[in-house]
């Protein structure tokens, strides 16, 4: 596999392999010496056009644990901020001998463009409102760890699906892995083209094995996607009462950062059903697995 | 077939001072493009009146209407006369400037439409193309005002509030690709409003680059009610669909966006039955840096002059009468270019192009005459090739090469 | 003409394992402080068999772990991507212990080098030794085995194929290749 641009690039066998490798990586993360020599001498560039300290640190830790050289290329204060084009930046990275470029970009499809201009592997770390495949992989990993399987599970993805790259990648990946995904939210934020959907959270909860809450930005309110934060929370927020309508084994996920009190109450976020902290931990292992998959072998 | 020419006009046999033998080639009246972006003044790195004229002649055109969204905007007599003069100097096609409807294309107050009409450029078509004249009251006034000199408003139909941040057709693909959608209703609602306005004030209305099945239906109904509306469709909307955005290559980014196969079929049907009057290229050259970038940051538009006829042949077949009407006679009539679009018979200006219908050619972006290379047809094999083009009896294209 | 010659057949393999178990007991004062680390894939069942034999001979239960060295290989770039197996430390860990690495075939020595790197990331054993079922020669690194089941002289072009009942359904060692 050369690039990881979309969760659609992964078939069930490859996705499962990544999750299995991630489990091996997780074992390494548990021991005293957390480092592996696997990618020694290889260069990974973190090219971040958006502030996302969490994701950048997660990729940086993953690359460093595999002994890769890591170069952080933040768009702020760099030539990029001075108007250098993505193509020119790509040539710079090429000249630096980047074996892999991890890119976070506000424009959908920017990683696809970059892949045309560099010889190394391109790993999509979130592009606009398109996709965030490693987030979907770590969510799948978390689900598998908690539930023991993914195939056959009912997964509800709740909130601002329209603007969510996490939702798009999760729909593709979890469906590939055999889950039945239902998108839930107000009609203004749930495009019917993406799959099964419902506008009624309370009708979906009793059947759900996994409830994945998406971040809802308050700015959406001014764009009339919904009337007020209060009305949104009342109709689509996950609170204790709604959690009690879920099956006993069901888990609650959130990709972070959370708007506590908006889409999720603190009581739910901090409950034992919540996997939010595990998701962050699993992120490093999954990203190690992805880097290994892209760089740990010869490309035919 | 032999064409006899004297002083730039087609004459009867025996009166000619020169003779053109068409051989096995198909003779078409010189093509007329109602919708061309020549980029001069302002973006001479993307196209100039001269380079655009070359592309036009090579595409079989003898007249092009130059859109007003230059820098400075063609909203005064001075700018339209400059473009007109540059066209004369190039001397390859008649360049007929289109005037802006509103000052600076800002959609706030009318430009001096009468001054442009009275200028040496004799402007009759006015358009804010690239922007919609969205204020209904301003649109009504513009439609009314140009009646004084039998002008026409060419509307870029796009309700701006419904297309804020829009990147591509709103549908399955935009949802999948995470690109903000440009819904069909944003075009259709403006067309519906404007045909009613045109009826109300008894004015002529032209609709630029119709792109949806719904628009075709609205125009069909308006025409049936006797409303004086004309419409154009671009070659790319007759052929390409929104799935192409999946590569995120902005060469496929255009406004209005590529639509669905259903829309393409409705546009073809509308073009055949006359609901859509003409093919217009919306030739939109862009410098490499405006296309070799992220989709959202790229400028919309595609080259069209050199490929339009081939796409028309591909879509309509070798129906030369239909092609001559949709690409020459009808656009000349809408633009009021009396010297163009005439049938090839004695008395008509000797504006024509000779086409090899059997030839097939491969589109090579860097082989085109345009200064820019943003053709969506790169690598495609297209039917029909312009061999010679004549403007008032003067050869502008000889054996597929431009003469100056 | 390609050929496949059986070097060790069914009963031979178990006899060789028995001998290695005896050697380990001999050289380590009854396998004191010994832990066995099988290198994936076929070193793993071999390590288990050795532990079983030592238990049978001496009544001593030896901790067994598994080591996957994929992530320590120095030839990743030359090969297509390899699946990663599991590494499981033996109960009680390896710190201060006498670790006996177990593998099926000793060839270039690169696998063992990777295994030594992996071990040093896991902990700090007192001694590391190496037991192999077959030594076929052609070393590329200064590495030798402490316990060798059988030395098999080979040509570089030949392949040594080890089959074990736990994985392959049969115990057998074959030499494959084409004569020069």
Fraction of residues in β-strands of chain C: 25-35%
Shape of chain A: globular
Q: Supply the CATH architecture of the largest domain in chain A.
A: 3-Layer(aba) Sandwich
User: CATH superfamily assignment of the largest domain in chain A?
Assistant: Aspartate/ornithine carbamoyltransferase
Note the main sheet of chain C: 5 strands, parallel
Identify the most extensive interface between protein chains.
Answer: A-C, 22 and 20 residues
CATH C-level class of the largest domain in chain A: Alpha Beta
The low-pLDDT segments of chain A are none
Calculate the terminal CA-CA distance of chain C, rounded to whole Å: 10 Å
Portion of residues in helices of chain A? Answer: 40-55%
Rg over CA atoms of chain A: 19 Å
Enzyme class (chain A): transferase
Domain Aspartate/ornithine carbamoyltransferase Asp/Orn-binding (chain A): 151-294
Protein name (chain A): Aspartate carbamoyltransferase
Binding site for carbamoyl phosphate (chain A): 54-55, 104, 132, 135, 256-257
Q: Which properties best describe this structure?
A:
heterotrimer; A: alpha/beta; Rossmann fold; 2 domains; 40% helix; globular; C: 180 residues; alpha/beta; five-stranded parallel sheet; three-stranded antiparallel sheet; 28% strand; Dihydroorotase (chain B); EC 3.5.2.3 (chain B)
Can you offer a commentary on this structure?
- Chain C: It catalyses: UMP + diphosphate = 5-phospho-alpha-D-ribose 1-diphosphate + uracil.
- The complex is a heterotrimer of chains A (300), B (404) and C (180).
- Chain A is α/β, with parallel strands linked by helices and 300 residues long.
- Chain A is built from twelve helices and nine strands.
- The longest helix of chain A is centred in the C-terminal third of the chain and has 20 residues, at 276-295.
- The radius of gyration of chain A is 19 Å and the shape is globular.
- The model of chain A has no long low-confidence stretch (mean pLDDT 93).
- Chain B contains ten helices and 18 strands.
- In chain B, α7 (213-224) runs parallel beside α8 (261-273).
- By secondary structure, chain C is of the alpha/beta class.
- Chain C has a five-stranded parallel sheet. A three-stranded antiparallel sheet of chain C has the order 1-8-7.
- In chain C, α1 crosses α2.
- The longest helix of chain C is centred in the N-terminal third of the chain and has 18 residues, at 10-27.
- The radius of gyration of chain C is 16 Å and the shape is globular.
- In chain C, 39% of the residues are buried.
- The chains are: A alpha/beta (300), B alpha/beta (404), C alpha/beta (180).
């Amino acid at each position: 596999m050369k690039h990881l641009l979309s969760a659609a690039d992964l078939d069930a066998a490859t996705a499962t392999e990544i999750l299995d490798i991630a489990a091996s990586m997780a074992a390494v993360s548990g021991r005293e010496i957390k480092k592996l020599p696997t990618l020694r001498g290889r260069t990974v560039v973190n090219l971040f056009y958006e502030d996302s300290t969490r994701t950048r640190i997660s990729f940086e830790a993953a690359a460093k644990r595999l002994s890769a050289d890591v170069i952080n290329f933040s768009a702020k204060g760099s030539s990029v901020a001075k108007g250098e084009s993505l193509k020119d930046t790509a040539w710079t990275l090429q000249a630096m001998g980047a074996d892999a470029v991890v890119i976070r970009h506000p424009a959908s499809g920017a990683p696809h463009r970059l892949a045309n201009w560099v010889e190394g592997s391109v790993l999509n770390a979130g592009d606009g409102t398109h996709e965030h495949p490693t987030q979907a992989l770590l969510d799948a990993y978390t689900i598998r760890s908690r539930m023991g399987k993914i195939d056959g599970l009912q997964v509800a993805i709740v909130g601002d699906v329209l603007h969510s790259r996490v939702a798009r990648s999760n729909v593709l990946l979890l469906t590939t892995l055999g889950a039945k995904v239902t998108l839930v939210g107000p009609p203004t934020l749930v495009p019917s083209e993406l799959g099964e959907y419902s506008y009624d959270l309370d009708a979906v909860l009793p059947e759900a094995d996994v409830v994945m809450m998406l971040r809802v930005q308050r700015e959406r309110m001014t764009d009339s996607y919904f009337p007020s934060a209060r009305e949104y929370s009342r109709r689509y927020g996950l609170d204790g009462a709604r959690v009690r309508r879920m099956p006993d084994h069901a888990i609650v996920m959130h990709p972070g950062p959370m708007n506590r009190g908006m889409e999720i109450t603190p009581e739910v976020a901090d409950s034992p059903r919540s996997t939010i902290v595990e998701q962050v931990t699993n992120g490093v292992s999954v990203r190690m697995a992805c880097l290994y998959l892209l760089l740990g072998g010869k490309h035919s | 077939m032999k064409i006899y020419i004297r002083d730039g006009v087609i004459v009867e046999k025996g009166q000619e001072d020169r003779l053109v033998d068409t051989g096995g080639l198909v003779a078409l009246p010189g093509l007329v493009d109602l919708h061309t972006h020549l980029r001069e003044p302002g973006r001479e790195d993307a196209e100039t009146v001269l380079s655009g004229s070359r592309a036009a002649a090579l595409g079989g055109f003898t007249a092009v209407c130059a859109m007003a969204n230059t820098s400075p905007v063609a909203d005064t007599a001075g700018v339209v006369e400059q473009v007109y003069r540059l066209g004369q100097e190039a001397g390859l096609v008649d360049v007929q400037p289109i005037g802006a409807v509103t000052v600076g294309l800002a959609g706030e107050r009318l430009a001096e439409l009468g001054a442009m009409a009275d200028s040496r450029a004799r402007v009759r078509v006015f358009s804010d193309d690239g922007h919609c004249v969205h204020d209904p009251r301003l649109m009504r006034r513009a439609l009314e005002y140009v009646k004084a000199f039998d002008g026409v408003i060419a509307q870029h139909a796009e309700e701006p509030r419904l297309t804020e941040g829009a990147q591509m057709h709103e549908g399955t693909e935009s949802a999948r690709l995470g690109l903000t959608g440009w819904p069909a209703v944003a075009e259709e609602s403006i067309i519906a409003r404007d045909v009613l306005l045109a009826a109300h004030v008894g004015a002529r209305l032209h609709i630029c680059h119709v792109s949806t099945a719904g628009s075709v239906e609205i125009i069909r109904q308006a025409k049936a009610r006797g409303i004086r509306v004309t419409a154009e469709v671009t070659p790319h909307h007759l052929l390409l669909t929104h799935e192409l955005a999946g590569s995120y290559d902005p060469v496929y980014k255009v406004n209005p966006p590529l639509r669905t196969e259903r829309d393409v079929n409705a546009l073809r049907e509308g073009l055949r039955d006359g609901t859509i009057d003409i093919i217009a290229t919306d030739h939109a050259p862009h410098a490499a840096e405006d296309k070799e970038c992220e989709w959202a940051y790229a400028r919309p538009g595609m080259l069209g002059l050199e490929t339009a006829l081939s796409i028309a042949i591909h879509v309509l077949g070798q129906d030369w009468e239909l092609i001559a009407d949709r690409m020459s006679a009808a656009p000349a009539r809408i633009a009021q270019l009396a010297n163009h679009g005439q049938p090839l018979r004695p008395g008509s200006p000797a504006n024509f192009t000779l086409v090899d219908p059997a030839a097939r050619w491969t589109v090579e972006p860097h082989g085109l005459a345009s200064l820019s290379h943003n053709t969506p047809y790169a690598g495609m094999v297209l039917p029909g090739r312009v061999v010679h083009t004549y403007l008032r009896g003067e050869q502008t294209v000889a054996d597929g090469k431009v003469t100056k | 003409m390609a050929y496949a010659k059986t070097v060790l057949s069914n009963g031979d393999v178990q006899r060789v394992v028995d001998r290695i178990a005896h050697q380990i007991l001999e050289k380590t004062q009854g396998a004191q402080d010994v832990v066995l680390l099988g290198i994936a894939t076929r070193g793993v069942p071999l390590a288990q068999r050795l532990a079983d034999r030592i238990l049978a001979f001496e009544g001593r239960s030896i901790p067994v772990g598994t080591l996957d060295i994929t992530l320590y290989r120095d030839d990743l770039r030359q090969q297509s991507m390899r699946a990663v197996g599991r590494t499981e430390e033996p109960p009680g860990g390896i710190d201060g212990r006498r670790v006996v690495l177990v593998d099926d075939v000793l060839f270039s020595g690169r696998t063992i080098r990777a295994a030594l790197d992996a071990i040093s990331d896991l902990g700090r054993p007192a001694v590391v030794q190496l037991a192999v079922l077959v030594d076929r020669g052609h070393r590329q690194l200064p590495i030798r085995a402490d316990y060798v089941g059988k030395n098999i002289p080979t040509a570089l072009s030949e392949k040594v194929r080890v089959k074990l009942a736990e994985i392959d359904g049969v115990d057998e060692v074959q030499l494959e290749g084409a004569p020069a």
